[in-house]
Design a protein that fits this description.
This protein has about 350 residues and is an alpha/beta fold. The chain is built from 16 helices and 10 strands. It is about 45% helix and about 10% strand. Helix 1 runs antiparallel to helix 2 (about 15-30).
């Protein structure tokens, strides 16, 4: 529960103490979702910070909370030089440096070296590597690999040959590409280029209290969970994604996987250990990873997810990544709401989103 909810539910002096407890809990977790909502100051240092500040944690009895930087400074505190709470609205230089590096990687024919990227950001290679991973969620090398794999996946659908798509994507050799192709594409490059030709996808439809749930999986893991009223329509949508794949019914092991998905719908608090086979852009994968970190019974706003992945101005892009999620409930995009608390859109229907949230709240 956030401190704003506590204040609304418990007006008066007691609510202030409860709100401060919630604020302190956010500070202990270094929760970036609360950056800008309040600031904390430390009497022994005379400094005020954002809740997410990575500086050494102060003792609770030395901490005071303020609503704005101006209020903290009026009380005699100065801004922390590490988290720069007075520059909260300004672009973070480190975030901007990582964004430039990502753009450079995406547009380069040859992947830039770590030293080149670090030099462009004005940092040492070691420091840049650490900053990049913290903000992007992956290392520069992994981001470059994801970018090339995405290019290859797109090119395989239109290129004349697999080899042409591989080199157009920026791989220096076909052998290097094939080393990682299965892990990143979920099937062979030739199968992906041919609409899944030669790939075997198991699928089955389970009945839930929210309608039909289609579950599909490759050998790597679940690649689709779709909700709807018409099982035939869901099957056609899956076949449209992989028009030349071989679709087979589920064996007993697969039926257990379908049952696990149905369990996530009927009892959302269950532990989710499903193996997943999903490929998205580096940004989408960061968003989906953040969604999986939201506990059942809790919600987050698009802006909070954007801040959590280090892209505070990308709330709209976060919403688009949620809409592109092909794995209902396993990647819980239903737990993301608008800033005003409105349920807003949901790929599988707003009523299903509301029902899932009601179940989790209970």
């Amino acid at each position: 529960m956030s401190f704003a909810m506590i204040e609304a539910n418990h007006p008066g002096p007691a609510s202030a103490a409860r709100a401060d407890d919630a604020r302190w809990d956010a500070v202990r977790r270094r929760d970036g979702a609360f950056d800008g909502k309040f600031f904390f100051a430390v009497r022994t240092t005379g400094v005020y910070c954002r809740p997410s500040c990575a500086s050494r944690q102060a003792k609770r009895e030395n901490v005071t909370f303020f609503a704005t930087p101006e209020a903290a400074e009026k009380a005699g505190y100065r801004a922390c030089k590490r988290c720069r709470p007075d520059k909260l609205g300004a672009p973070d230089p480190k975030v901007e440096a990582v964004k430039r590096a990502c753009d450079r990687i995406a547009s380069a024919e040859e992947t830039p070296t770590l030293a080149d990227l670090a030099g462009g950001a004005g940092m040492s290679p070691h420091h840049f590597h650490r900053v990049f991973k913290k903000i992007a969620g992956v290392t520069p090398k992994a981001y470059a690999a994801q970018t090339k794999a995405r290019r290859a996946a797109e090119g395989l659908r239109s290129a004349g040959t697999v080899t042409e798509a591989i080199y157009d994507a920026g791989f220096n050799s076909s052998s290097r590409f094939y080393e990682t192709a299965a892990a990143r594409l979920g099937m062979t490059p030739t199968a992906l280029r041919r609409g899944g030709q030669g790939a075997v996808i198991r699928f089955a439809v389970g009945e839930t209290s929210l309608g039909a749930a289609l579950v599909a999986a490759t050998d790597k893991g679940v690649c689709a969970i779709m909700l709807g009223q018409d099982p035939d329509a869901l099957a056609r949508e899956l076949q449209d994604r992989f028009p030349r794949a071989e679709f087979v019914g589920g064996d007993p092991a697969f039926e257990q996987m379908v049952a696990a998905v149905v369990g996530l719908i009927e009892a959302p608090g269950k532990r989710n250990d499903l193996p997943l086979d999903i490929l998205g852009t580096a940004f989408q994968e960061r968003v989906w990873q953040a969604l999986r970190a939201i506990p059942a019974g809790k919600t987050a706003t698009y802006a909070e997810i954007a801040r959590a992945i280090g892209r505070p101005t990308a709330a709209r892009a976060v919403a688009q990544a949620c809409a592109a999620n092909p794995l209902a409930v396993a990647i819980p995009c239903h737990r993301v709401v608008r800033a005003d608390g409105d349920i807003s859109g949901y790929r599988w229907g707003v009523e299903r989103k509301r029902a899932l949230l009601d179940r989790e709240a209970a």
